[in-house]
From TrEMBL:
Domain of life: Bacteria
Role noted for this protein: Catalyzes the epimerization of the S- and R-forms of NAD(P)HX, a damaged form of NAD(P)H that is a result of enzymatic or heat-dependent hydration. This is a prerequisite for the S-specific NAD(P)H-hydrate dehydratase to allow the repair of both epimers of NAD(P)HX.
The keyword Magnesium is annotated on this UniProt entry: no
Phylogenetic lineage: Bacteria, Bacillati, Actinomycetota, Actinomycetes, Pseudonocardiales
EC code(s) of this entry: 4.2.1.136, 5.1.99.6
Pfam families the UniProt entry points to: Carb_kinase, YjeF_N
Positions of the YjeF N-terminal domain: 10-209
GO BP term (any one): metabolite repair
Gene that produces this protein: nnrD
This protein's name: Bifunctional NAD(P)H-hydrate repair enzyme
Cofactor note: Binds 1 potassium ion per subunit.
Reaction(s) the record says it catalyses: (6S)-NADHX + ADP = AMP + phosphate + NADH + H(+); (6S)-NADPHX + ADP = AMP + phosphate + NADPH + H(+); (6R)-NADHX = (6S)-NADHX; (6R)-NADPHX = (6S)-NADPHX
Family annotation (InterPro entries): Carbohydrate_kinase_pred_CS (IPR017953), CARKD (IPR000631), Nnr (IPR030677), Ribokinase-like (IPR029056), YjeF_N_dom (IPR004443), YjeF_N_dom_sf (IPR036652)
Annotated positions binding AMP: 388-392, 417
Amino acid sequence: MQGIWTTERIREAEGRAFAVTPEGELMRRASFGLSVQIADFLEDHTGSVSGRRVVLLVGSGDNGGDALWAGAFLRRRGVAVTAILLNPAKAHAKGLQALKRAGGRAVPAADGPQWIAKADVVVDGIVGISASGSLRPDAARLVELVEAPIVAVDLPSGVDPDTGAVDGPAVQAAKTVTFGALKPVHALAPVHCGEVVLVDIGLELSDPDLRRLDIVDVAAAWPVPGPDDDKYSQGVVGIAAGSATYPGAAVLAAGSAVRATSGLVRYAGHAADVVRGQWPEIIATGTVADAGRVQAWSVGPGIGTGSEGRDVLRYVLGQGVPVCADADATTIIAKNPDVLDARDPDTPLVLTPHAGEYERLMGHKPGPDRVTAAREAAKKYDAVVLLKGHCTVIAAPDGRVAINTPRGAWLATAGSGDVLSGLVGALLAAGLDPWLAAAAAANVHSLAGAIAAQNAPTSASGLVHAIPEAIRSIRSLTS
Ligand SMILES: NC(=O)C1=CN([C@@H]2O[C@H](COP(=O)(O)OP(=O)(O)OC[C@H]3O[C@@H](n4cnc5c(N)ncnc54)[C@H](OP(=O)(O)O)[C@@H]3O)[C@@H](O)[C@H]2O)[C@@H](O)CC1
Ligand SMILES: [K+]
């Protein structure tokens, strides 16, 4: 798993590193690594390094210092470097001196536009981990003029380092070069960061605040049958979804569970005939009480929020097995919290709200800090909370948080959530830790979306059919 640390933790680690390294050494490591990455970027995008024109946007702190020092290193490789100083009096003095000594130019913001127009690459050294709020007007005016690709220093300026929130003008980078460790912005604002490259500067950090699942983690977690397994030993999942009028949710959630693992899938609900017709391998019954034993339930999509849905949810919560409560089940819980009385507190519960369902559950919107929002809901409901959005945040009641960074936005299609709930249910039935089950499901869900879409719109059915290919491609990395 990739660890991600908040800016507070990064600063603490920097403080420890400062105490044992010569003055300026950390910045030297950071800016040298940055210069190498900028040169690589130039090579990739223009075919050469020497003779190219790089413009640095330099703010008033060490982020600007990194940019200035990197500019000095790039001069040695024959790059023409111009620094636009947003606040000349506060520009990093030693970095500025180094750039000038190396033959670089420094100009005030008023002269910026003419240099920006001629740049092959623009480097964003406006602000780093001490950022607050979106870009200030002087910086925003210059960024707006940029047509060349931008390489961001540490993080794209204007994006909140700890939440990834953007509430005004912000840099949209093609590449972000960060130092020491990944920060939340890198997982939560992928569109603004572009490609993220981590330069090691020797920070020592443990116990990440957040995590991002590597594809190898997903491959290792995904249940694979052994020679002694049969259809029961791999986990039987029950799907309670859909209705006679709207059988689609049932077909998608149950089909997704079929595709996810080799365990048995039971379906219970009014869409039994349709489900059986689409998926002959599913044992389908009319009611949850008739469904037989399962190792986990996935309940909610399309069951309605009336008394019947309530009874179904109460029944599955009382079975002493892990439950993934999705869609209508979330709304039922929000409106009738007493249904949770049926739950044995020791059995895992996974809730999968989108922002609107979150608001129903918590009485307020998730807000810009989605990690804290998911953590609060996980605590309140003593459940794993998978907060849907462009980036999915998965919080466990014990405080663990995983971020699933999307692969494009193709998943924003009708029925996509039903597919996710089937995946989570199948992994819960296979016995995965519920937080890992939710995170791994989100990961394969987004990969299946990318495979199904192939740069054109896809459907939830397309997603279901792409699940085996997604699992295959993940497993190919480890086998
Ligand atoms: N420490 C280390 O070991 C290492 C650190 N390294 C580097 O240092 C960076 C952190 O540097 P830092 O702490 O000096 O502050 P930084 O982020 O440059 O901000 C500067 C000032 O900008 C202002 N400002 C705030 N918000 C703003 C906005 N929205 N738009 C515009 N301006 C805004 C605000 O000042 P104000 O104008 O409010 O007085 C703020 O104080 C880090 O990201 C990494 O790149 C690396 O070299 C590795 C070693
Ligand atoms: K920056």
